[in-house]
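Re: export button greyed out
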Amino acid sequence: MIRTRFAPSPTGPLHLGHAFSAITAHDVARARGGEFLLRIEDIDQSRARPEWEAQIYDDLAWLGLTWDGQVLRQSERAADYAATVAQLWDAGLLYSCKCTRRDITQAASAPQEGVAPHIGPDGLVYPGTCQSQRTWIDDAALRMRISEALNGKHYIDFQEVDADGVTLGNNITSSEYITEYIGDFIISRRNREAAYHLAVVVDDAAQGITHVVRGEDLKSATPIHVLLQQLLDYPTPAYIHHPLIRDAAGKRLAKRDDAKAISKFRAEGVSPSDIRAMIGL
Ligand code: GLU
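Workaround output, generated via the alternate export path:
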């Protein structure tokens, strides 16, 4: 049975890009007698707001989307994330890191045999400063020792599916590429908050998601998620990365761009079917 999810962060209004993800995930599941689940990604408590969460429920109901079962809220899942972090630590895959953003920028831009620093899904690829750290430090972030994590693997792959549920083929990323362009990514932050990559993988497994539907801006992070699934013995879902909604000038819609907020269209008298038409669904 197909099970999809919509996983918005309550850090601003839902806009047309969110509508694209939510409607696609909903329709893919419903067309095949599957389930559509909702997860509130409110792990970043400094940015999540209850009023945005309330607005999410309201906008989804207005769009005519109903979800199955209980809503999963990441702010209530710290114990599960901590248990998973402990599992990865015990497997010798993590190390403590106290580098600040500034330390990383400085180290990454130090002239190094003429190699330009690489930008990965989380920004600058970590230059490896703390790699020799072996002890657990309480107020440090934890990073994945990517060389260990990829040990023996030549590549990471997953099934890419289109918005109609048709398989497009295998997406393959080589281990060399992951080492160079993703590197030692963050698993948990200095305050012990789980990083997005960890939370999303733990939650997709907990919710039994078979098809992850999201914008193609997250595609570069998918090999990280598949690697984590493999390390944790979770099944790997299929992925539907849909095109991003762009503004009239072809510029990608920023999350903070309220101009395309669903609530704004609603206030202007636009109907849910107009929204579907606007995003080509
Ligand atoms: N919470 C993420 C967002 O709102 C989506 C994560 C995902 O779909 O994997 O952009």
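DSSP finds ten helices and twelve strands in the chain. The button fix ships in the next patch.
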